[in-house]
Every structure is written in structure tokens, then in C-alpha cells.
Amino acid sequence: MKQRHGSPDEADCRHGSDEAHQPHDGVSDATVEALGALSKALETTERARGHLYDFHQLTGGADFELDRAVRLLREAGHAGCADRVEREILGRNVIPGHWTFQIIEAYNATYYEAFKSVEAEIREELADGADHLFEARLKEQRRGPLEA
Question: pTM (2 decimals)?
Fold first, then answer.
């Protein structure tokens, strides 16, 4: 037997829908859609947070590469340029008073943790904490019929 997507030995092919991802009685389609939008927004925030870590690591890596640049400038006879890089760029704040790790800490404390908490509390209130109900509904809708 073959399914349009996935392998024939997947548990959901043999056993029907995934009970853990089914809305309980009283959860309307509109609520499932709203929870899906909230979840999608949180997932986008997770991606944004990941980009902050990219920014943090890339900026830190660039700062460490400046050590090499300073050394090479000195070796090439450009002590004044090396001094300027050390004085004006090396270890510099990326925004006033902050290195990149402090930006991440502020983002997490001010926005990310609050967002995660509100999303989880609303999901608990409206769907007994069930996650990914919208995606599970899409999965059911998009699964093809099994072929003999």
C-alpha cells in the first residue's frame, strides 16, 4: 500500500488519526484557526530569536577576527592603522552600552518569554494544552487515500 506522502509503515497510516492532536469537544474550527495563527506567530518569533543568535555569533566572530587583522596590520608596517582598529572597533558596543549577548538577554526577558507564556496559557485555556491542532487538521485534510 502506498500513501501520497510519507511511508506506508507510518503509524498514522495504519491506525488513523493522531488522537493527541485532535481538538476536544467544544473546540470550534474558528478556535483551531486562531490557535494556529498564534502558534505561527510564535514560530516566527522563534526564527527571529535564532537570527539574534546568528547576529550575536557573527558579530563575536568578526570581533575575534579583528585580533588577526590588527596583528597583520602591524606585521605589514601599519601600526597606526592597527592602533585605530584596536581603539575604535575592537570590543566596541554594538548599540550604546550593549554587546550582542545583552540584546539577546533583553529580547528574551522583555518579549520572548512573555510571548511563550501567553501562547501556552491560551492554548491550555482553549484546547487543554494541545499543540499544533491547526497543522494536524491540515494533515488530515491533505492526506491522500491509501492505494491497494
Answer: 0.75
